[in-house]
Amino acid sequence: MAQRPHLAEIINVGGTWLPGIAKYHVTLEDIDSDSSNRSEAGILHRDVIRSSVIHAQVTHIVDQEELTTICGLIKEDSTVEMTLFCPGRGDPDVESTFYVSKVDFDLIRYKEPNSEEVADWWQLNYTLVEV
Fold first, then answer.
1. Which end of the chain is more exposed for a tag (fewer CB within 10 A), N or C?
2. What's the alpha-carbon Rg for the chain, to the nearest Å?
3. 115 domain residue, yes or no
4. Is residue 64 part of a domain?
């Protein structure tokens, strides 16, 4: 298995590692068909269409330049070809198409203690769903 050079190298879009990943939460979910339901006795009958579909919640804390780079690579309500790290799958580096949703931005203004210097950081949050 190839060694990951840096822990921060989790998501790659078009050959670019996305910077500043501060939180990365992955769940693997099954997609059921419409015919999946419970019987009168409460027994669940599932018709699984796909299993282990990746849902990833991602948070970056980045400066303005890095935010611009990320926003140029991913767009809300669109699909993106990417490679991401998913320890629950056979090969943890999963190459697939992901739908980008629930994008939001928070400005974090940080002032150094005992200084007048102020730095602006952005917290970018979004969800990736494997298509």
1. N
2. 19
3. yes
4. yes
pTM: 0.80
Q: What percent of the chain shows pLDDT beyond 70?
A: 82
Q: Is residue 96 domain-resident?
A: yes
Q: What average pLDDT does the segment 50-74 reach?
A: 93
Are the CB atoms for 10 and 94 separated by under 8 Å? no
DSSP SS3 for 72: helix
Residue 99 Cα distances to 2, 17, 58, 102, 111, angstroms: 27, 18, 13, 10, 36
Assess contact for 119 and 110: CB atoms under 8 A: yes
**What is the H or E stretch that residue 64 is in?**
helix 64-73
Residue type, 85: F
Cα(82)–Cα(85) distance, integer angstroms:
10
Name the one residue in this structure whose structure tokens are 């822990």: 7
User: What is the span of the domain harbouring residue 16?
Assistant: 11-130
